[in-house]
Amino acid sequence: QVQLAESGGGLVQPGGSLRLSCEASGRSLSDHTMGWFRQAPGKEREFVAGISRWGGGSTYYGDSMEGRFTISRDNAKNTVDLQMNSLKPEDTAVYYCAANPGPFRSPFWRRGEGLEYWGPGTQVTVSS
Length: 128
Prior knowledge:
Low-confidence stretches: none
Largest sheet: 7 strands, mixed
Helix content: under 10%
Order of helices and strands: EEEEEEEEEHEE
Radius of gyration: 13 Å
Mean pLDDT: 95
Number of helices: 1
């Protein structure tokens, strides 16, 4: 049984940085696309970033994240990380890790539809 576990959330000041990590257990997810979503109170879940399976040579970002966030994966450790820089108060949300077999299929991934595995989430709060 595959489980995803996020870590690295916390409180950070505006303009600061935070690095989230998601570790998978149960089997190797090197053949899975992996990614991050977030959900703020009262808002819909939002696609943050995705990374292709195998070598992770392709990355994908939500509209307001590219340039500030960087996704990476380490198949040896079965992890996917999200480096977040220049954080803003509007980045405050619960961040979720997700994984799905096969390639990145943009419409489904960007809507978070039908993804097989989800983590329980980690809170990120950006505030002074």
